Every structure is written in structure tokens, then in C-alpha cells.
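Methods: example folding runs. The two proteins below were folded one after another, and each record is reproduced exactly as written to the output file, sequence line first and C-alpha cell line second.
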Amino acid sequence: MLSFTEAEFRIERPFKGSTTASNLSQEAKDVAQMLVNHYVHIQGLAVSQMLRKSVETRDWMNTIEPRTVRAVMKRVVEDVTAIDVQVGQLYEEGTRKERSSDSSKRAISHSTARQNPRSNWSSYAPSTLDDSLLSNIHKLFSERIEIFSSVEFSKVSILTGIVKISLKTLLECVRLRTFGRYGLQQIQVDTYYLQEYLWRFVSDEHLVDVLLDEILSSTIYRCLDPVLMETSVVKAICERG
């Protein structure tokens, strides 16, 4: 039937031989993969644009002491939730790593898990600390996460791709800014808030933990007066927000 159709309508194929069902099946799979990859890329860019604008248009040196989670972070969670519902109508849940037993503990201590080593940075005078060396050491021990990896046909995989693109954008933005004490503390509040909600959308909550931890670490590195808030205060602000 396929050969008859090609001959009748003079359809030219890029390869010789008759069209087979397996060829059509493979082409359909390739197109479907391209479409889902493109969807993840577009949705990731949409969320990223909000995050980028929120970082680039704020004066982080002269911001006030944080009293609430920034509205853009709430919008990010709302948009990701809406995407989750939309994708869930087409795809099955997918495989998700079981949440570790110490997740709640790690969520509470996310922003201060390594507070002491980081706070030691401020004890060095500029002349005694080689910025490029510190940066290279930091990157050396940072976990590598593939951001633009191929997406599987499942809700969890699609949402994981979108979240990774969004957080990577936020990371790159904070690396280009200079922060004062309260600017750093606002990022601390924002990353805590994101960690509290975004983990449930991804295949492995560790991905979110690593990226948010890297965002906070980079902010500390770019801060002129790196003093973090108490974890209890951060938690109270996020619960109130």
C-alpha cells in the first residue's frame, strides 16, 4: 500500500527503496522527540526570562532586609505547577527516585548546610585570596549536571528539564551581579522557597538541591558583606510568604 501510494502520487524519498512500517515508526519517534525537546526548551526559556529579568533589574547592593519571598519566585512555582498539570494530561508520571528520609532535615538546613566554611571566606583579606584560584577550586568540587540532556516521554522527565534550564539561568545571572548583605539574604530566602516546592516536580530532588546550593554559593562569592540569615528566620519568612 505504501509503495502504491508513493508511485501514484509520485512521492520522492531521500533514499531508495520502498517505505516500510519500521521506517515510518522511527521517523515518527524522531519527530516526537524533537517536539518534546523543543517544548522543554521553550518552557524553560519562558521561566528563565522571568528569573533573568528579576535579577538584572534589581539593585542588589542597596536592597532592604528581606521580609518576604520575591513575587517572581512565587510566579515560577505557579507556572511550573501549571505546566505539570498540562503535561500530566498527555504523559504518564514516569520514574522518580524515592525521596530520602532526611529530605525534610536537608530542606530546613539547605541555606546553612555549609555556612561555616563559606563564612570563613570573609576572614580573608583581598590580597591573600586569589579569586581565580578560589573559583577554579569551587568549580572542581561542584557536581556536574547535564542541563540540555535528551528528554524522555514522561511528565517527570519533561518537568525536570524545564526546572534545570530555569535554575541554570538563575545561577548564571547571579554570577554576573554584585550583592550586599541584604541582597545575599534575599537570594537565601528565595532559594529556600524554591527548594521547598520544586523538588516534587523533578525525577531526583538532589538535582534541585545541587543547583540551588550552587546559586547560593555563587551569591556568597559575589557578596561584599557575606552574612547569612538564621535558618529559623528564613523558614519563618517562607512560611509567611
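Second run, written to the same file directly after the first:
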Amino acid sequence: MGSTQSTWVNAEYMGASQISTYHLTSGFLKPLNPILGETFTGEFEDGTKYYAEQTSHHPPISHYMLRGPDDIYVFTGYANFAAHPGLNTISINVRGDRKITFKNGITYNFNNVDEFFDNVFIGTGRHQSVGNLTFKSTTGNIVATITYGKVKNKPQDYFTGTIKKDGRQVCSVYGSYLGFLEFDGVRYWDTRDLKPFALHKTTTALPSDSRYRPDLQQLAQGNVDEAQKCKEQMEEAQRKDAKLRAAVNKLQKPKKKGWFS
């Protein structure tokens, strides 16, 4: 799988790990919005640990961390979203930063990319990632850039890119986030050949874990009306807590001194 002796091999595998998840994350089912302080703990088949927490309600922000088997890498990040609706479209600006530190000490910082939804109300729904995904190493001056939807005579899911060291291109990137990824013509990922690891819930979890949400438990039992009632109760409690925090912050805020104070 490519030149494993190259100093940018981490960038290649990191790009493959990110691109290969895109086709698993697109869906149009209505989600249960996380409550402030809600957490999740899971483990993948290879032993990777996954932790997440909803750290802000307005704006909604989620922080997460993955620890690879034997700590071969630590992946941390956060994301929040700003939606910009059109007549029949929605553009999602995904903010936040991500970082991966490998066991060999190499660290890469990279961004989130924006999302675009077309035919939201009329027509066949379409979802695509747009913009540039850029990885930058904190040492070694390595930069990998992947650009979505700009491949001539190809659908929007195709992308091209480069890996550069000290400003000089050392590798080319090509593929489709719905099908495959190649570095210098060598295929690193193909949906027909590789099966994604399943994410399982851990046997133990914090009381704040999403598995204990009463609306989710009711929904799992098929009690849709009761699940909706539980969801509304949780959201009302969250709004009440937000008002209390705002009132406390207002009281604690130092008053400005007057002219003769």
C-alpha cells in the first residue's frame, strides 16, 4: 500500500481513513439532537476506543476523541454547524478543528469540510461534500490537500489532491468518496474490498451516556408517541437550565463603575 518508508506515509493513511468514512455518514433520517452534557462511549472491532460529549447547546458543539489500539494514534476534534437554507437547498458550514497524533510523535491538524444538500423539498435528494480538506503536519513541513467536486467530466463525489513536502509535490491523490482512493495510482481503499469496523457500545458507561435517554429507549420499544413526549420534556429541561445559567452569569458579571464610583 504505497511507499511505507516515505516520511508522508502518515498523511496517506490518514487521508484514507477520512475519505473511507464519507459513504457511511450520509442519510436523511431525523436524528435525536444531543442534550448538553450527553456523552457516548464505544469501541470498534479493532480495539479503537471512541468518546464523545455534547459541550455546547447554542451553538451546538460536539467534542470527540478516538484512541487507536495500543495508542498507535490519538484523534481529537470538535465540530459545530451553521445552516444556510435556500429555496430547495441547504448549505452546511462545518466549523471546528481536528488533530491526529501518531505514536511516532508526528501530529497533523486538519479541517472539517462543508456539506451541501440539494432537492430538499422537491426532487431526488442529493448530498455532497464541498471545498478543500487540508492536512498539515506540525513537523516536517508536509501538507496534503484534497479538493472535492472539481474533477472534469466526473460526478461531484470525485476529488483530486496532492501531498507536498517543503512546497514540492511528492504524491498525487485521486478518487471518489463513494468508491475508492488512490495515491500515485496505488489503491488504498475500495468499498468493494474493505468492510468497515462496527462500532459497539461499551459494557459500562456514564449516567450521561446516550443509551440511557428515555426517548431513545421508548423509540426502541416502538412507543413513538411516548418517545416524543420524553424528547419534549428533555428539551424543556435543557431550556430551563440554560435560562438559569444565563441568570447566574448575569449576576456574576462585574458592574461597570460610574463616573463618581
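Comment on the second run: Residues 110 and 135 are 5 Å apart (CA to CA).
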